[in-house]
Amino acid sequence: MAENHATATDKPVPYSTGDSNITETTIAEMRELAARYPVGRSALLPMLHLVQSVEGRVTPEGIEACAEVLGLTGAEVSAVATFYTMYKRRPVGDYHVGVCTNTLCAVMGGDLIFERLKEHLEVGNDETTEDGKITLEHLECNAACDYAPVMMVNWEFFDDMTPQSATQLVDDLRAGAEVKSPRGATICTWREAERVLAGFPDGRADEGPTGGKASLAGLRLARERNWTAPNGSGGGNGRVAETTVSPEAAAGPRPSDQPGKESQAVNGDDSRKED
Amino acid sequence: MLTPVLSDNWDQINAWQLSAYQRTGGYDALRKALTMQPADVVAAVKDSGLRGRGGAGFPTGMKWSFIPQDNPKPKYLVVNADESEPGTCKDIPLMMASPHTLVEGVIIASYAIRASAAFIYVRGEVLHVIRRLQQAVQEAKDAGYIGTNILGTGYDLDVVVHAGAGAYICGEETALLDSLEGRRGQPRLRPPFPAVAGLYGCPTVINNVESIASVPVILKNGADWFSSMGTEKSKGMTLYSLSGHVTRPGQYEAPLGITLRQLLELAGGVRAGHELKFWTPGGSSTPLLTAEHLDVPLDYEGVGGAGSMLGTKALQIFDETTCVVRSVLRWTEFYKHESCGKCTPCREGTWWLVQILERLEKGQGTEEDLVKMLDLSENIMGRSFCALGDGATAPITSSIQHFKDEYLAHFTHGGCPFDPMASTVFATAGASA
């Protein structure tokens, strides 16, 4: 089991390749991030995400740029960059593919999915395919346990996975097909995702549903059986009061096919969980 | 039985947008709060009996009242949206479906403690949730709910959505503060507590997402309404997250004090043809419970009385196909990986626990190893800098307490007696043999 957690640390990575993409624009954006906080150093984590969006990894040039903007030493920035799992010293592919192998997902199939993907992609943990498309990594719990086994592509959710749906997913990604998260947007590149994490929105927030089937499991049952919270007192919550009269009216417009609709396209084998 | 309040608007079209949120009375609570004195807002939350939903269960209103208002330094609100305790999956769907519920709570809470800025520290590994939060904050700014002179009251507030970078330890509130200051996420010694010296050494309140999201409806419906739900010391409704070997996993919002037996009935029971073996009441850091605990009230006191903790109400359900030793090894590998390295008992202790568990799982251990693991756990528990170390011992000690025979079976069998395929969701019929 422990081999899941092994990292390819024996493969040397050049300290600098000398072809940094950090420009004046990047520096200006770093200053913009620093200005959002009462103390500029608070922007260091966002700035490192920005470095990854520009460089495809945390480069020495990126570290120096952060240090210069914040008045820190390179060593101080490196100390932070090396602490956090999401910051990568090796170049990451267009698609960062994560498989949760924490206990619950592992038991539900995550271990087998991760093994299958390592064979299928011919890479180990935290390694990138030769075509530079996919970096595979095992993940710790990603807060989607009610959709186990869970995978993430560029930090978008892929729910209720199987070895088949997982290999299909990475094949689609490598082939350049348009792939949608069942609870998120159309998959962008890892660098584009890192830019959003840095704090520069990409305007895709309105894509995808409010939630998947599991998120709504309790709510749907409550609607079916007309269960509500007690009435609000003193002219309080109109929503709760209305719900007592007519749950359908108070619930507002609902797309009957909304949750999990797109997940069918990704993972057709949804029959094992009772609807 | 179920009381959808926080989740009540999750099935509406575009629930994450301001217009949809306002259609169901969104931001009415903010308008009401802004007509009240900040101290009265604190009192309302105190009276409601709301306790922290991030695991510790500390009374939220009391936390707010610790902020020294005679301190001339700026005050800050920090929302802990770093949801990453294994099994916990309630804040992410809340922020995905209805980020404005959180944002409205943030503004009310900030007003109550007179904060000048608020930060939502969200784990970095949830891209779409971050998009929705960013958009919600922007919409609230455009609507005049965030910024200067909010709704003409003269109150100013800035709100920043801050993405983390992958470190479980940053869910610990003082480590989160260091991380938010642009440092390695390592916990701080307390005292001083964050209420006195938190972010940038200033008075700071740190609350979980669900706690803050519960604030608007408390203001709207009143403290009595909230405390009419729940049990004597555990008030209100809360999100229970069922996952694992259950027919319909998901979020079930109910009054505190519901039992696992009741929740399992709602969720269609343990998956067909199988039976409950063990479960966590609130994530992997809460000691395992078994079928004999099905009728324990899931509130702070009830679960505490059963020798575990309510934690985050992350009910991970495992049936008889699951190997306890494998499960505990994996959780322990997680704690080892996530230990920040600051203190010796946790850094070294989790490392040694993994070494021993690996041996045990391969059937190469001895009964003495179990004694050694309990001894190690005793040296980690209460001697670590923060709760991560304590949490790491929970699966070890509780599994040895309830399933010692299964550890022994690994020795006699010369390895794991379980078929890993049988526990998967795609198990074939023959795999359970």
From TrEMBL, chain A:
<keyword id="KW-0001">2Fe-2S</keyword>
<dbReference type="GO" id="GO:0051537">
    <property type="term" value="F:2 iron, 2 sulfur cluster binding"/>
</dbReference>
<feature type="region of interest" description="Disordered">
    <location>
        <begin position="1"/>
        <end position="20"/>
    </location>
</feature>
<protein>
    <submittedName>
        <fullName>NADH-quinone oxidoreductase subunit E</fullName>
        <ecNumber>1.6.5.11</ecNumber>
    </submittedName>
</protein>
<comment type="similarity">
    <text>Belongs to the complex I 24 kDa subunit family.</text>
</comment>
<dbReference type="InterPro" id="IPR036249">
    <property type="entry name" value="Thioredoxin-like_sf"/>
</dbReference>
<feature type="region of interest" description="Disordered">
    <location>
        <begin position="224"/>
        <end position="275"/>
    </location>
</feature>
<keyword id="KW-0408">Iron</keyword>
<keyword id="KW-0560">Oxidoreductase</keyword>
<dbReference type="GO" id="GO:0003954">
    <property type="term" value="F:NADH dehydrogenase activity"/>
</dbReference>
<dbReference type="InterPro" id="IPR002023">
    <property type="entry name" value="NuoE-like"/>
</dbReference>
<keyword id="KW-0479">Metal-binding</keyword>
<dbReference type="GO" id="GO:0046872">
    <property type="term" value="F:metal ion binding"/>
</dbReference>
<dbReference type="Pfam" id="PF01257">
    <property type="entry name" value="2Fe-2S_thioredx"/>
</dbReference>
<dbReference type="InterPro" id="IPR041921">
    <property type="entry name" value="NuoE_N"/>
</dbReference>
<keyword id="KW-0411">Iron-sulfur</keyword>
<dbReference type="InterPro" id="IPR042128">
    <property type="entry name" value="NuoE_dom"/>
</dbReference>
UniProtKB/TrEMBL annotation, chain B:
<keyword id="KW-1278">Translocase</keyword>
<dbReference type="InterPro" id="IPR019554">
    <property type="entry name" value="Soluble_ligand-bd"/>
</dbReference>
<dbReference type="Pfam" id="PF10531">
    <property type="entry name" value="SLBB"/>
</dbReference>
<feature type="domain" description="NADH-ubiquinone oxidoreductase 51kDa subunit iron-sulphur binding">
    <location>
        <begin position="325"/>
        <end position="370"/>
    </location>
</feature>
<keyword id="KW-0004">4Fe-4S</keyword>
<dbReference type="GO" id="GO:0051287">
    <property type="term" value="F:NAD binding"/>
</dbReference>
<keyword id="KW-0874">Quinone</keyword>
<keyword id="KW-0411">Iron-sulfur</keyword>
<dbReference type="GO" id="GO:0048038">
    <property type="term" value="F:quinone binding"/>
</dbReference>
<comment type="function">
    <text>NDH-1 shuttles electrons from NADH, via FMN and iron-sulfur (Fe-S) centers, to quinones in the respiratory chain.</text>
</comment>
<dbReference type="InterPro" id="IPR019575">
    <property type="entry name" value="Nuop51_4Fe4S-bd"/>
</dbReference>
<keyword id="KW-0560">Oxidoreductase</keyword>
<dbReference type="GO" id="GO:0046872">
    <property type="term" value="F:metal ion binding"/>
</dbReference>
<dbReference type="InterPro" id="IPR001949">
    <property type="entry name" value="NADH-UbQ_OxRdtase_51kDa_CS"/>
</dbReference>
<keyword id="KW-0479">Metal-binding</keyword>
<dbReference type="InterPro" id="IPR011538">
    <property type="entry name" value="Nuo51_FMN-bd"/>
</dbReference>
<dbReference type="Pfam" id="PF10589">
    <property type="entry name" value="NADH_4Fe-4S"/>
</dbReference>
<dbReference type="Pfam" id="PF01512">
    <property type="entry name" value="Complex1_51K"/>
</dbReference>
<keyword id="KW-0285">Flavoprotein</keyword>
<dbReference type="InterPro" id="IPR011537">
    <property type="entry name" value="NADH-UbQ_OxRdtase_suF"/>
</dbReference>
<comment type="similarity">
    <text>Belongs to the complex I 51 kDa subunit family.</text>
</comment>
<keyword id="KW-0408">Iron</keyword>
